[in-house]
Design brief:
Layout: H1 3-12, E1 22-25, H2 35-48, H3 55-60, H4 66-78, H5 84-100, H6 110-119, E2 123-127, H7 133-142, E3 152-153, H8 166-175, E4 182-186, H9 189-197, E5 201-205, H10 212-217, E6 222-224, H11 227-233
Parallel strand pairs: 1-2, 1-4, 2-3, 4-5, 5-6
Helix pairs in contact: 2-5, 4-5
């Protein structure tokens, strides 16, 4: 069903074969249905200090580090980067608003897919631009025995967040694998760009407010409508 997309990836990269020994998962919008909280939290925090910002921008900036998102908004509004004190204050506001929404629900079928991947004895990595403590701590609560610290790349581990390739290049280095041995599951345009810039095969699940063309234009190799569709069609990718 998806063999033509995989074959195109192999041909475009001059690989002899493609075998996914590891799956790199994004977190927000893939494992947790948390973007519906992140986006308004960013909007309220920015608006509180007089910076125009919309929830759609929150979705479009998903994957960036918090400081990078703030700098983009400040450059648009003030023509400069935010000071360290301003960044700390805005991120404090954003985190406070985020926590008022309560626990982010697990994305439907995310746990089922992770268990399937684990049963197949494929390595599982987390590659997220998030530094939200409640979500990172929640990984062990909601997905026990799945994520190991040494197989995680978060906002605390990178200088450049998505769409820069650094997060996925770090995960690739940790895995010791080649791009021909890795598959990425993303939901955000910037996350797709990051993984593609690292030379990886990307399945994008459209769990946000986007027209799927946004994800295709970001470079996704395959675009699906949900984690449920990914789970139900998983065997076709391998």
């Amino acid at each position: 069903m998806f063999s033509s997309s995989i074959q195109k990836y192999i041909t475009d990269n001059n690989f002899a074969t493609f075998t996914a020994k590891a799956i790199f998962f994004d977190m927000d919008g893939v494992l947790f249905d948390s973007m519906k909280f992140h986006a308004p939290a960013w909007t309220k925090a920015m608006n509180d200090i007089g910076i125009a910002f919309t929830e759609y921008e929150g979705y479009m900036n998903e994957g960036r580090t918090g400081h990078s998102t703030i700098d983009l908004a400040f450059n648009r509004e003030h023509g400069r980067n935010a000071t360290e004190a301003e960044k700390q204050e805005i991120y404090r506001l954003k985190s406070r608003y985020f926590e008022t929404y309560g626990d982010s629900p697990v994305m439907p079928f995310a746990s089922d897919l992770l268990q399937k991947v684990k049963a197949e004895k494929r390595e599982i990595y987390l590659v997220t631009g998030s530094g939200q403590a409640s979500l990172l701590d929640g990984l062990q609560v909601h997905f026990p025995g799945i994520f190991k610290k040494e197989r995680m790349v978060t906002a605390f581990d990178v200088t450049h967040g998505k769409p820069h390739p650094e997060p996925y290049l770090q995960a690739l280095k940790k895995s010791g694998l080649t791009p021909a041995e890795v598959m990425v599951v993303e939901n955000a345009p910037l996350g797709v760009e990051s993984a593609k810039a690292a030379g990886l095969f990307v399945i994008a699940v459209n769990t946000g407010p986007f027209d799927e063309k946004v994800l295709w234009d970001s470079g996704a190799d395959i675009v699906l409508s949900s984690m449920q569709e990914l789970y139900e069609k998983w065997d076709f990718f391998l």
